[in-house]
């Protein structure tokens, strides 16, 4: 079939647990279409070894000697070798998942799910982003969490900048009242209303009174 690989997928393993590394090498070597061409427990030697071995896929432990050196290598190895990096970890840490993908990994697997590794290697070698559903879900959850934190921060900032009286004014603007109508209903001079509006725009950096009113509405102030 056109485009099908005819050579074994070349794999390199960067893992500092000697027993787990030997077991993974033996497990992958039992696959007819996968060849382990290099392995190391030294993150400092990984770049040079990868350049020499020319792997298609690198299995990289995210924690090397209890230090997340794997995150740094996840960015360096693809740039230096063109290999696809799959991060391996013994614990499913959401922060590390996000950082691994930001660094350049194409997949993230928990070591206990070792039976999924051969297929992940094949997908990565085929140049398909092999993010499994669990990792993808973690990424989505983290994105939503960060977005919620950002929105909460922006809302709190907005509330600190705008007084309750100014919020009421913005609510009236959002409801379609003109500045003249607001002045009449609030028993204020038109000049005072204009000053209030200009003060609000200055404080929150809005382009117009309608923009400021919409921001207040979006943040749930009324």
Automatic annotation (TrEMBL):
<dbReference type="Pfam" id="PF00072">
    <property type="entry name" value="Response_reg"/>
</dbReference>
<keyword id="KW-0804">Transcription</keyword>
<feature type="domain" description="Response regulatory">
    <location>
        <begin position="10"/>
        <end position="126"/>
    </location>
</feature>
<dbReference type="InterPro" id="IPR039420">
    <property type="entry name" value="WalR-like"/>
</dbReference>
<keyword id="KW-0238">DNA-binding</keyword>
<dbReference type="InterPro" id="IPR000792">
    <property type="entry name" value="Tscrpt_reg_LuxR_C"/>
</dbReference>
<feature type="modified residue" description="4-aspartylphosphate">
    <location>
        <position position="61"/>
    </location>
</feature>
<protein>
    <submittedName>
        <fullName>Response regulator</fullName>
    </submittedName>
</protein>
<feature type="domain" description="HTH luxR-type">
    <location>
        <begin position="155"/>
        <end position="220"/>
    </location>
</feature>
<dbReference type="InterPro" id="IPR011006">
    <property type="entry name" value="CheY-like_superfamily"/>
</dbReference>
<keyword id="KW-0805">Transcription regulation</keyword>
<dbReference type="InterPro" id="IPR001789">
    <property type="entry name" value="Sig_transdc_resp-reg_receiver"/>
</dbReference>
<dbReference type="InterPro" id="IPR058245">
    <property type="entry name" value="NreC/VraR/RcsB-like_REC"/>
</dbReference>
<dbReference type="Pfam" id="PF00196">
    <property type="entry name" value="GerE"/>
</dbReference>
<keyword id="KW-0597">Phosphoprotein</keyword>
């Amino acid at each position: 079939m056109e485009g099908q690989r005819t050579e074994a997928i070349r794999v390199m393993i960067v893992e500092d647990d000697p027993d787990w590394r030997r077991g993974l090498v033996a497990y992958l070597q039992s696959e007819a279409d996968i060849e382990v061409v290099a392995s190391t427990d030294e993150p400092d030697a990984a770049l040079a070894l990868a350049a020499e071995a020319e792997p298609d896929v690198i299995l990289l432990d995210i924690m090397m000697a209890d230090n997340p050196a794997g995150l740094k290598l996840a960015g360096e190895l693809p740039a230096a070798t063109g290999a696809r990096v799959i991060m391996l970890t013994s614990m499913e840490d959401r922060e590390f998942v996000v950082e691994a993908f930001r660094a350049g990994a194409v997949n993230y697997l928990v070591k206990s799910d070792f039976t999924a590794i051969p297929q992940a290697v094949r997908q990565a070698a085929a140049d398909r982003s092999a993010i499994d559903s669990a990792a993808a879900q973690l990424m989505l959850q983290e994105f939503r969490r960060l977005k919620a934190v950002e929105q909460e921060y922006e809302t709190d900032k907005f509330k600190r900048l705008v007084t309750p009286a100014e919020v009421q004014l913005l609510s009236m603007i959002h409801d379609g009242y003109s500045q003249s109508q607001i002045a009449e209903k609030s028993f204020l001079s038109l000049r005072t209303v204009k000053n209030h509006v200009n003060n609000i725009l200055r404080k929150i950096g809005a382009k117009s009174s309608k923009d400021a009113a919409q921001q207040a509405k979006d943040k749930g102030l009324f």
